[in-house]
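hey
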């Protein structure tokens, strides 16, 4: 019996919409999770994030265990209380950041040993320690297994080795996690862009048994088309009655194409990172507010939006803030971008429920431009 009921309300082709019911509130799917790396969605208050319609945010185990420290967060009442977010939180396992950010990472059967990118201090992250940090100290609602994510492109033997280690670590995470009524544990499918390996990974995870299943090892440089080719089969290898979470993705077009292939949940730093660099995502694609053509554009980013950042400020004013390097520009663009991603998932939920997702997908693709 899974910790959280997952009710699929409607399907349209492979796309589906539903609700993952947690003790801290419902997560409507498809769902986009804003990334709160260091107990904050960058540049935004939790009230601003909640106002966009976000049902859940993501916290980062690697960053929080290094600063301020998982034990300290626990002493201060857990991550929800620490950052004043009462809705669900998913924490990643820390594995990806260990591989990509730390100065020295040594992977053994037992654990990964690494040096902090902050001060060089040495740390050991085992499957058991990852679960302890996420579930017991931070108090996450959804806990991710520790896995090994290989760089792309990956040689088949190396990708196979990593997925098998990840599966063994997944079993250890499951044992450490035990049975919990108000928290869930997700497994992570690996296997790079090789279908036979993705299938093997899925089979191993299903044998262990998780509350939800993530698709890992994508959005690591393979590109949109290669990612879609993997998503043509990878979600279908995972249980249809549990949530499917595509990690670290992505651009709006990535979300739409992944939902068309049966994915339910997403996270990405893109909305806030773009916002800090003067880029706004719109229904017609991204625009760069640094461009001189916006200097006297008195129109808002999205007059139909309920988000004040999208609706109430002119592109001319946003252009001025970005050019003047005013902090408010980063705040407003980050807020707008998060709101846009939430509006996109809401639009997809409605389109699936009404049986018109393919038309929505086609219209969305045709409206996109690059820039």
């Amino acid at each position: 019996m899974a910790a959280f009921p997952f009710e699929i309300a409607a399907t349209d082709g492979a796309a589906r919409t539903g609700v993952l019911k947690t003790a801290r509130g419902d997560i409507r799917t498809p769902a986009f999770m804003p990334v709160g790396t260091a107990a904050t969605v960058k540049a935004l208050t939790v009230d601003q994030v909640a106002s966009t319609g976000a049902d859940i945010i993501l916290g980062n185990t690697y960053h929080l265990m290094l600063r301020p420290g998982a034990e300290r967060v626990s002493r201060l009442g857990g991550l929800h209380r620490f950052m004043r977010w009462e809705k669900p939180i998913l924490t990643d396992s820390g594995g990806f950041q260990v591989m990509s950010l730390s100065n020295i990472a040594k992977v053994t059967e037992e654990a990964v040993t690494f040096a902090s990118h902050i001060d060089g201090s040495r740390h050991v992250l085992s499957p058991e320690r990852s679960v302890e940090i996420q579930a017991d100290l931070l108090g996450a609602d959804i806990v991710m297994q520790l896995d090994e994510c290989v760089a792309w492109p990956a040689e088949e033997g190396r990708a196979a080795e990593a997925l098998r280690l990840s599966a063994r670590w997944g079993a250890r995470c499951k044992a450490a996690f035990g049975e919990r009524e108000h928290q869930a544990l997700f497994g992570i499918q690996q296997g790079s862009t090789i279908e036979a390996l993705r299938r093997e990974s899925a089979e191993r995870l299903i044998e262990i048994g998780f509350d939800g299943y993530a698709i890992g090892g994508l959005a690591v440089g393979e590109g949109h088309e290669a990612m879609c080719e993997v998503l043509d089969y990878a979600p279908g290898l995972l249980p249809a009655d549990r949530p499917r979470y595509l990690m670290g993705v992505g651009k709006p077009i990535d979300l739409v194409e992944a939902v068309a292939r049966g994915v339910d949940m997403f996270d990405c730093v893109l909305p806030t990172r773009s916002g800090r660099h003067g880029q706004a995502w719109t229904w017609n694609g991204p625009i760069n507010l640094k461009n001189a053509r916006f200097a006297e554009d008195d129109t808002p980013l999205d007059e139909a939006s309920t988000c004040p950042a999208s609706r109430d400020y002119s592109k001319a004013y946003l252009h001025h803030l970005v050019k003047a390097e005013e902090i408010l520009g980063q705040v407003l663009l980050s807020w707008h971008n998060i709101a846009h991603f939430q509006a996109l998932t809401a639009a997809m939920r409605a389109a699936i429920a009404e049986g018109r997702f393919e038309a929505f997908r086609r219209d969305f693709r045709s409206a996109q431009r690059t820039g």
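The two ends are 47 Å apart (CA to CA). The longest strand covers residues 15-22.
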